[in-house]
Batch of 2 targets.
Target 1
Amino acid sequence: MRINHEQLTAFATAIFASAGTEEVRARKVAHHLVMANLKGHDSHGVGMIPAYVGNIKNGNLNIAADAAVLRDQGAVMLFDGQFGFGQLVGSQATELAIARARETGVVCAGVRNCHHLGRIGSYGEQCGEAGLVSIHFVNVVGHAPLVSPFGGRERRMTTNPFCCTVPRADDIPIVLDMATSAVAQGKVRVAHMKGEQVPAGSLIDHQGQPTTDPGVMFNEPLGALGPFGMHKGYGMAVMCELLGGALAGEWTAQPDNERGVQIVNHMFMVIFDPAAFGGLDRFNSEVTAMVDYLHSTEPALGVDKVRIPGEPEREALAERSAAGIDIDDNSWAGLLKAAAAAGMDDAAISAAAGGA
Ligand code: NAD
């Protein structure tokens, strides 16, 4: 089915509010999730709501928590998300780090113990829209690992996302925002449910051999997701684990730490003002000239044009804002079930879902 983003935001807000979340907070979380759908990342959109409602119910998600300052030492800041909605505690910590970066020129900030932060690009955009450069290393803990190290055949990490944002004087920021696994776990689940194969190079079986069968992620003997870009992507995943996890979160995926049904992100960010380096005019003109140069590349056969990071999201936003968001039947059924679990009755569900 296809649904308008405002209607979907209202429905998602109603679900979180019914689960006890203050309305204004519920709306912010809903907005973040629907923006992920609008920007083309359905794996991090409203399809996460059933897991969030489950974690509210089992006490793994604290709906009232805000980011608490644990350490405040000039250019070094550390926050505790206290297992609150990542969308709230992540953006609160980023906002405070942005304010500090304006004073100090640069900030290294950690935010630990966030329930799922969602689309990391949203925090990059927050920095970029403030005219600042940002780099984000994130790990994922609280449940069993999914991703194998390069050359391995067992799972050791999760999809550890990395993000880097460069602001532009006269356009939206350039945002590289990516999982360090070859493909998102959400996309593997969808392929499995549809009986489809995943792209070659995404998965390995239990012997470490490449496979396109998504069933290896769900049926014994289990395989694993591979890192993107072979040893290089694996290396980035390790850095996300060590900086996001060991440094900011003090909680990596190693097995002495807790593994249950939580979805916990720890994020390490470096945020800085390009003006602090002096040549802001030159920086801006070089960024513009380089982007123009990249755009001028003759496209490969079968490709319409060369893009820069962040442009696919901009295109998806324009297209989906106008045409609506496609939600597959399973995800919609999951949302209706989550709404009921959150405490909405049939009449409220059908009113909030707009009879969709
Ligand atoms: P992706 O592969 O769709 O895109 C990755 C990056 O490549 C984006 O910056 C995109 O703009 C860019 N890109 C894509 N196609 C391009 C092209 N043709 N030309 C130029 N640039 C292009 O993203 P992904 O790796 O599937 O990640 C999806 C989302 O999942 C991200 O928002 C990420 O933050 C999120 N994520 C979150 C967690 C978490 O634990 N919170 C974990 C993993 C991923």
Note: The two ends are 8 Å apart (CA to CA).
Target 2
Amino acid sequence: MPRPKQPQQYYDDIKAKFRDARNLRLGYRPPGTDQFISELSGDLSKYAVDPYAADVPDRAPITDEVEVLLIGGGFSALLTSARLRERGIKGVRIVERGSDVGGTWYWNRYPGAACDVVSYDYLPLLDELDYVPVNHYSRGPEIFGHCQAIAHKYNLYDLAVFNTTVTETRWDETEALWHVKTDRGDVMRAQFVICANGTLAKPKLSAISGMTAFSGHAFHTSRWDYQYTGQNLEHLKDKVVGIIGTGASAVQIVPELAKTAKAVYVFQRTPSSIDVRDDWPTDPNWARKLEPGWQNKRRSKVLAAVENSLEKRASKGATSPEEKLKKQENANIDYMMRIHRRIDEIVEDQTTADALKPWYMFMCKRPCFHNEYLPAFNLPNVHLIDTKGQGVTEISAKGPVFDGHEYELDLLIYATGFEVQQTGIYNDIKGQGGVNLQDKYKDGIRTLLGIHTAGFPNLFIMGGYQASFQFNLTDMLQTQGDHIAECIDYVRRNGHHTLDATDAAEAWWVGQVIEHRGKTNRSEECTPGYYNFEGNEQRRQDGNYNGGFRQYFECQGQVREKMTENFHLASRKPSSSLDKA
Ligand code: NDP
């Protein structure tokens, strides 16, 4: 039954509550991203250790030359490498910190790990691998296995180097090659380097007073210690477990802990919005009838549906921009109030139910979908510790302290997320003239399509700022991978050695990014989170391209149509500076 239409005052009052919740939260934590630590060294280095790598074998340093070197072995690398292989490029090397490919799905093996994007859209190259996912939503192990299957199909293990972290990437002007140094003493040389090191790959901890004094066991969600918990969490049955954070990772983990641990304390600062997860096993009859090309067709349809979002539909017929905005906001509030009603229907204790209600616009934070998270709070062993926007600020030797109460724990899990889109990309990359990419970006990020940056020939960046953003990240990464493979192929086919974006092309793109950002102040009004840089002020160019995914894709095509206008293309001239065409 359609709900009765509410007067505008109803929406205005809810918006005021959103503002109050944001202000409360910001009042406690003014330092934005500085509240987190992602340099996990010294006492915190244990949080970065790879629990999934067996003993790392010794090997001699590598000093060879390959055509294409990819920093990172997750979906960015796999999707691009597949396209490079299809174009006959043999010398493709993945250099990866972990001991296998998989990226996000290598690291995030916590219990309950699964993807919130429908599997038939999320798992890439399904046609190419002749694979249909097992369920409507894929679990972590299936996705990790799919990554390995891609690497096998395209022979990407041949030259891959694991347990190896890149420490410096430097353009050697004399050789016109990239020199890539690693923590294993390698100095690998490559004609092309692709930064494929992920958008959310570097774990971060909330900087909490006393955290190193905690005497129990502790780890970050992306470094799950199954030795401690047991493969099926069976070792937790006499353990008291605390988890800090209630983002997408925690939402999947809490129901699993609830099934086994003696007691679970969930330390919440801001609740997530939790909607229904509509999962089912793949119908074999449907799968059998799929025709070649089905995944691409499906993804296009999904994109069209996303473009026709609830808010857009709601604002149809508006006669002014103000009316349009109001209609969109009201539709958004209606959705969030449905999320609230769902909590009231499921969570029995009213205080807990109220504490779990998110007071912000939909999409201010990453939305979550789970059927067992809210019911978990009805179990006698699960306790929500609502810090009401303050967060955990103190940890003693026994456990987190909040509101004068010390929560004594055996195990403390940090579900505090990841550094966003900076992951190693800007570490230590030196282009022409020894210019460090960090220095180039100090007055604002400058790229062409978020992929190329002038003065860094034959370097490609994936999943970074100034690229489009898509809830289905693999769709976005595939378009970038396709574009990069096309560019490399173009250079090879035309007898060139390097391509480097022109200043003019870069300026055009920076202009596009600026033009499409900040059309509304929605993001500024949002409660802090990684979507809005934790409430920090941000330069208009230092973010994603918001002109739409389809337009982003079309812009890639436009750039490639005019290669000679958008890039300096040069042949290799050993021992001399490069000829700019
Ligand atoms: P997030 O960054 O989304 O969440 C971090 C959580 O830690 C937030 O709830 C944050 O609260 C909380 N927090 C930080 N400091 C404190 C503190 N001092 N006290 C209490 N709480 C604190 O990280 P996640 O690992 O959950 O997710 C990261 C991203 O990874 C997701 O957004 C998603 O894109 C991806 N992901 C996807 C999954 C999927 O497809 N299903 C599953 C898991 C992750 P606050 O909100 O107040 O800042």
Note: The CA atoms of residues 303 and 550 lie 8 Å apart.
